[in-house]
Specification:
This protein has about 900 residues and is an alpha+beta fold. It folds into six domains: about 10-130, Beta-Lactamase (2-Layer Sandwich), CATH 3.30.450; about 145-250, PAS domain (Beta-Lactamase); about 255-420, 2-Layer Sandwich (Beta-Lactamase); about 435-540, PAS domain (Beta-Lactamase, 2-Layer Sandwich); about 560-655, Beta-Lactamase; about 750-900, Heat Shock Protein 90 (2-Layer Sandwich), CATH 3.30.565.10. The protein is built from 27 helices and 34 strands. The strands form seven sheets. Strands 1, 2, 3, 4, 5 and 6 form a six-stranded antiparallel sheet that branches. Strands 14-13-12-17-16-15 form a six-stranded antiparallel sheet, sandwiched between helices. The protein has a five-stranded antiparallel sheet with strand order 8-7-11-10-9, with helices on both faces. A hairpin with a 4-residue loop joins β23 (about 565-570) and β24 (about 575). The longest helix is centred in the C-terminal third of the chain and has 43 residues, at about 665-705. The protein is elongated. The chain starts with 9 loop residues before the first helix and ends in a 5-residue tail after the last strand.
Length: about 900
């Protein structure tokens, strides 16, 4: 399809279109494309045929479409050329291209009859413009966020500014336009006069070397404030090496400068406080440090004086005419009230004189009066004065910070003073303490010992310090484990631990020491050292042991007296009793001690007598002890005849009361008489038993001595046999006495073995048959008896004793019988005779020592009366029992049992 332009100027139009680099299009009144130049393929990628009769707005970006439609409508209504507009047009590849277009309204021109659109692709230009805007935005943001001012200036003495960033306002107090080209003030005028020459000189030196320059100097701001600034910059040179201008950056470092000064001040003050200066020297050192650190004309320190006010303790730079007048800030003044409340005054010197009560006048112009505060209390104040003008905010803040540091340093100085005093006292206490003090680290190496510790152990401090306490050999080997356990307890978190440890002195002797250990912790709370305080308790322990033994002896004596014993105080209240007192009166110890008076235990008729004696003993009118028989009273009301003894304890206002129950006195006397009678009978019997064989021995011995050579062999043999029988009888008597003595002393010991009871009985019967061949002995042993755990010799002795008694006390011609059989869990032995029998009232007593059924005068049978006594003890030692029964038809039956299960 061929294109034909409107009108007749074909050649001109063709030449125009072919030479155009921009896009040319013709639209009808509704915005449809009637013609488009071939450049559309190069600019938008479309062929001409693809665009004809399509509305131009189809190819406009949705966000630009409304604005483009308005521009198109305006172009249709207004003849002539409309201004360029910018919109995004869709490329055939889907991307959007920025086009700048203008419209020429030729709708009324018969040759064209349309809107002629001239459009050029400005996508690259728009991108560059956007990039430039973004970089400018970034630069503006960067400069606005920098804590200072960026600049470009000429290298002239006025530092004429060509450009300054917005940070100029914050830094100098001037607007950027007021500095550019020195419109209001030159930058050189802002530099402190004392720093101008140095700044010019250092910049020129850097330019000559073509290196950056870095400066620190002071500025005066528009408000008159003084600031410290840091500047870095460099010269900008042309390609030919000609300096064009300077560029750089300036920032405020006032806070940093004063912070560094505060830090230096803090360090210097700490060093001054840690020295050994007197208070006046310390304060003067503080004043000098502040005077040198801050831009002040004078400096003074006042300290709180009792409650009356603040007294000048030192100054520097204070004019002589003002020293006397400013020597004291009294209570009641506005300045003192401000200081007490922790308020800092930044005022003129004239105002300070009014507020502090100083005389008016003087050479100073301004002042800062800052309190020295520590732990919520004002301990003094710092006064700084300016000779000209006012203090800048930075200097005033520095002085306030300095006051805080001085307060801290002063508090530290006082603390160190107290610490030095405390350490001196501690050292004196340590050296002259009555206890030994050891300190050692976590490795148990001794770090400190006092004089008492050296005296106790016998080593010098030099011999002990630095050595392991366990390796030193001062701890008893058997107590090493105890010491390590206690150290572990302390390292485990306990604050203190106490123990008793044996130590070995340098001489090798052993002492008992009571040790109390405690931990010293560092700032992190870790155990730094362990301190032991030790006391030699060897002597005390010996005294305690002696006291304990004495107390034990006293308690044993107190309990074992056999009489009721009381301790009573001067009010007759019972303070201690023994068990016999509890038994005798029926009251428990708890019921009597501290609750009853011993008079409560005495029957009314005798109370006054006992009271009278007690009063006389207490007053000293009568010496104790005093005894008398009285009638006491049991808890049940039963009267108790008693012998009371009252004594005073020497050195104590206490009495000892003993009460002996004498209600059994007659019974005791009868028992004593009976025992005496038994003893007399025993002596008579023993004399008889010993005299008979002794006489026999004597007679036969004399016969042999005088007639032995003339006697025949048979006569001599008979005499010797008689002597042998007499000797056997003597030995028997002695053995019986010894056996009785062993029983009496509880020394009867059993040799337990498995024993055949039948065999045991047969041996006893055989012995009796040998001794009494003319007597009939009968033995009956049951079958299946088994064995018995017993002392065979002693059981055989028991059987012989019973059989011997049966032979002794039964008529000749009557048999003596022995039976052995099982009786449940015991073996039953029975001896039967046909003697006279034993009266019922004597059947229990015959087993007592020395008891004889016949009286001594009619003692007929041999023996001391100890056989049955010994026999009973043998049976009971085996866990059995023995008894006597009458025998039907006359005679006696003796039985005893031995447990089969064993003997304890």
């Amino acid at each position: 399809m061929s294109q034909r332009g409107p009108g007749d100027g074909k050649n001109f139009f063709r030449l125009l279109v072919e030479s155009a680099q921009d896009l040319v299009a013709v639209l009808d009144g509704e915005g449809r494309i009637k013609y488009v130049s071939p450049s559309v393929r190069r600019l938008l990628g479309y062929g001409e045929e693809e665009l004809l009769n399509r509305k131009i707005l189809e190819f406009i970006h949705p966000e630009d479409r409304e604005r483009s439609a308005s521009n198109l409508e305006l172009a249709v209504r207004r003849p002539g050329v409309t201004r360029y507009s910018l919109q995004r047009v869709r490329h055939r590849d889907g991307t959007w291209r920025h086009h700048e277009a203008s419209a020429l309204n030729l709708l009324d021109d018969p040759r064209v009859r349309g809107l002629v659109i001239n459009s050029r692709d400005v996508t690259d230009r728009v991108a560059l413009e956007n990039e430039l805007r973004e970089k400018r935005r970034e630069m503006d943001t960067l400069l606005s966020n920098l804590p200072g001012m960026a600049y470009r200036c000429r290298n002239d003495p006025q530092w004429t500014m060509l450009f300054v960033s917005q940070g100029c306002r914050e830094l100098t107090g001037y607007e950027p336009e007021e500095l550019v080209n020195n419109a209001v003030v030159s930058y050189a005028e802002l530099i402190h006069p004392d720093d101008r020459d140095r700044v010019w000189r250092e910049v020129q030196e850097a330019l000559e070397k073509a290196v950056p320059f870095r400066l620190i100097y002071r500025l005066h701001t528009a408000s008159g404030e003084r600031k410290w600034v840091w500047e870095q910059g460099r010269g900008v040179f042309s390609r030919g090496g000609v300096l064009m201008h300077l560029e750089g950056f300036i920032t405020d470092i006032t806070e940093r400068v004063w912070a560094e000064r505060v830090t230096r001040l803090q360090r210097d003050l700490a060093q001054a406080a840690s020295g050994s200066l007197r208070l006046e020297e310390f304060l003067q050192r503080v004043i000098d440090i502040i005077f040198q650190s801050g831009e002040v004309g004078c400096c003074a320190v006042y300290l709180e004086e009792g409650g009356g006010g603040y007294r000048l303790f030192g100054h520097r730079g204070l004019p002589e005419g003002e020293v006397l007048g400013a020597g004291f800030i009294g209570r009641g003044t506005r300045a003192a009230e401000a200081l007490d409340g922790g308020e800092t005054l930044r005022i003129s010197w004239e105002e300070l004189c009014r507020e502090a009560g100083f005389p008016p006048g003087g050479e100073l112009s301004a002042a800062v009066l800052a309190p020295l505060r520590w732990e919520g209390k004002t301990t003094g104040c710092l006064l700084a004065g300016a000779l000209q003008g006012e203090f800048s905010t930075a200097v005033a803040e520095f002085l306030e910070a300095a006051a805080a540091q001085v307060a801290q340093a002063y508090a530290r100085y006082r603390l160190l003073e107290r610490l030095r005093e405390s350490e001196t006292r501690y050292r004196l206490l340590l050296e002259f303490a009555g206890e030994a003090i050891f300190s050692y680290d976590r490795d148990l190496k001794l770090t400190g010992v006092n004089r008492k510790a050296c005296e106790m152990i016998g080593y010098s401090a030099e011999e002990m310090l630095g050595k392991n306490i366990l390796e030193l050999g001062v701890v008893h080997p058997e107590d090493l484990e105890k010491v390590l356990r206690d150290v572990g307890i302390l390292l485990g978190g306990e604050e203190t631990v106490s123990d008793e440890v044996r130590l070995i002195t340098s001489e090798g002797s052993e002492i008992l020491v009571e040790l109390t250990g405690a931990v010293l912790r560092d700032r992190e709370g870790r155990v730094a050292e362990i301190v032991n305080v030790g006391r030699d308790i060897s002597q005390r322990r010996r005294a305690e042991e002696a006291l304990r033994r004495s107390e034990e002896r006293y308690r044993v004596t107190f309990e074992a007296t056999g009489t009721a014993m009381f301790h009573v105080d001067r009010r007759a209240v019972i303070t201690d009793v023994n068990r016999e007192a509890e038994r005798l009166f029926g009251y428990s110890r708890e019921e009597m001690v501290g609750k009853m008076r011993y008079m409560d235990l005495i029957a009314p008729p005798d109370v006054e007598r006992v009271k009278d004696i007690s009063r006389k003993l207490l007053s000293g009118e009568m010496a104790g002890p005093v005894q008398l028989e009285i009638l006491a009273r049991h808890r049940s009301g039963r009267p108790v005849p008693a012998l009371i003894t009252v004594s005073m304890l020497p050195g104590l206002e206490e009495s000892v009361i003993s009460l002996l129950d004498i209600s059994e006195k007659e019974e005791y006397e009868r028992e004593l008489e009976r025992r005496a009678e038994e003893m007399r009978d025993f002596l008579d019997i023993a004399a008889h038993e010993l005299r008979h064989p002794a006489t026999l021995l004597k007679g036969y011995a004399m016969t042999l001595l005088e007639y032995g050579e003339r006697m025949g062999e048979e006569s001599r043999s008979e005499a010797l046999r008689a002597i042998d029988r007499g000797a056997d009888r003597l030995v028997g008597v002695v053995e019986e006495l010894l056996e009785a003595a062993r029983v009496e002393r509880g020394r009867l010991r059993l040799d337990l073995r498995d024993v055949d009871p039948g065999e045991l009985a047969r041996r006893a019967v055989e012995e009796m048959r040998a001794r009494f061949p003319d007597r009939e002995m009968r033995l009956r042993v049951a079958k299946g008896l088994g064995t018995l755990r017993a002392d065979a010799a002693r059981l055989e002795r028991l059987l012989v004793i019973l059989l011997d008694n049966a032979v002794k006390y039964s008529p000749r011609g009557t048999p003596v019988e022995l039976e052995v059989k099982r009786d449940d869990d015991a073996m039953l032995f029975t001896v039967l005779d046909r003697g006279r029998g034993i009266p019922e009232e004597d059947r229990e007593r015959i087993f007592e020592r020395f008891y004889q059924v016949e009286d001594v005068l009619h003692h007929a049978g041999p023996g001391l009366g100890l056989g049955l006594y010994i026999g009973r003890n043998i049976a009971e030692a085996h866990g059995g029992r023995i008894w006597c029964e009458p025998r039907l038809g006359g005679g006696s039956v003796f039985r005893f049992t031995i447990p089969v299960s064993g003997t304890s």
